[in-house]
Write a structure and sequence with these properties.
6-stranded antiparallel sheet; alpha+beta; single chain; 3-stranded antiparallel sheet; about 15% strand
Length: about 550
Amino acid sequence: MGTVNASPQAKTVADPSAIYDSMRPLWEKSRAAIGGERLVKDYDQLLDTAAFTNLLLPFSTSMDQQQYDFYKAEAEWPGIVSQYARILIGGLLRKQPSLKLPEGIPADAHGWIMSQFTQDNSSLISFLDDMLWEEVQTSGPWLYVAYPKVENAGDLTKEESLALKPYPIIWKAESVINWRTVQKSDGSQAFDRIIVRNYEEEYLEDSFHPSYVDTVTVHELVEGRYQIRKFQFKGPAIGAQAANGVIKQEYGPNTPKGVFELVETITEIQMDGEYLSEIPAWPFNGSTKCVDPMLTPLIDREVALYNKISRRNHLLYGAATYTPWIASDMDEGEFKRVVAGGLGTWIRLLKDDKIGVLETPTAALADMDRAIAATLDEMAKLGIRMLTPDTDQSGIALQIRNAAQTSQLGTLNTKISAVMADVIAFMLNWRYRLKLTASDVKFELSADFSPVPIGADFIRLLTEFYEKGLLPRSEWLSSLKANDLLTPEYNDEVGKVEIVQDGLITTPQENVDYQKQIQAMAGLQGSTDPSVQQFIANKLVQDMIKP
């Protein structure tokens, strides 16, 4: 066993890099803003009148914590960016992703990737929804591919070995605390060390609640071979905190210091009898450099809107409260009698007495409303379009309205599609002992951003090309799917059989006679084999589309 001692002066394997420390505040702010009002107010739990890092800024440096808590209780977070983030993800996943595998791949490979992609056999769409949610919040999640750990793997039969499936794991941006890249012989950059820190659940015997063990995992290449070292915290026990159902990961200077002990080293990681020569982890956006969360400009504007709305509400409460005043020489008892009469009561005053009401801040309210409207306009220019009740719709609708935002989504679609093609090729290689590359797998996250023109004339032209044999049927069908003329789930093989069996296309007798004719030509009279039926269907369709 090896140990790593932590001290205030020396950094250890568990300490984040300087780049990580610089990005952490951006991730926290973005997660709070997109997470909604509860996370925003949890983010502002303690008043900061020194650096003013709160999202809801205090009125003055003299405001104490109790006053701030009261002010925060009446604050109102708009939640615009949170809904916008969901709309972006829904826009990218409104159609099923497109996946084309090369010839010779096992028949169950496509169904495995599309329908049973994760360790718990969830679909690819479900996994991408979770992955994109992380990407939109931080622009820094990683995708790691793991393989089931099996004792005596060499004794498994071929069928048992094929039943084992690699599966993807999401590393959040906060989990990857350090990394290192090296230059390969071809000049490209590759990761040779990635350090991941998170909490692992451990259940003691007869325990109903887990204990959370601070764990650091070092994924590295040693002499060209991939290995994993696991360190665990052996200092004083710490309690993990949760927010919105997720365990918080806080690895800052206030993290308890102690000893991280090496508890496990895994070196025998092989694929098809050969040691892995790369770390099976990819930044989801394909970038080896840290980038700001993609919605940061919108989040900054919503924080400004949050402060304006909250101060407007504070003024509104003041405007709804009337403060009467009395100018008189009456004694204390007479004054209390007048006050006890209440508003709306006949009050008799002495000669030369005066009564009035302090002016409410209605002018300030009008100014704040103008400031709020101006901030909404700024957010609209950045990509969010607000449809207000003075149009033909009521309420607030969020839509993508400018080419810049569409271009940003298109770029994200292209980057993620390239990464997923690489990941899928790697998973297929690991399970089926293949030698595929990313270029062999055709994956497209969203067909909405495919550079295919849309229009009836274009579709008609493609159909003419297909009928004349100038365009493959697969490309023609892909164009129809991209333009919503076919459902993404359309199966061409099943469709061909339905066409053959449809009495409206050919009469039943003509259909039967023609099938017998094709069987006779192929020497397959009377065969009921499914492959023969598929051959007949293909031949019928080919003859029907001839000019």
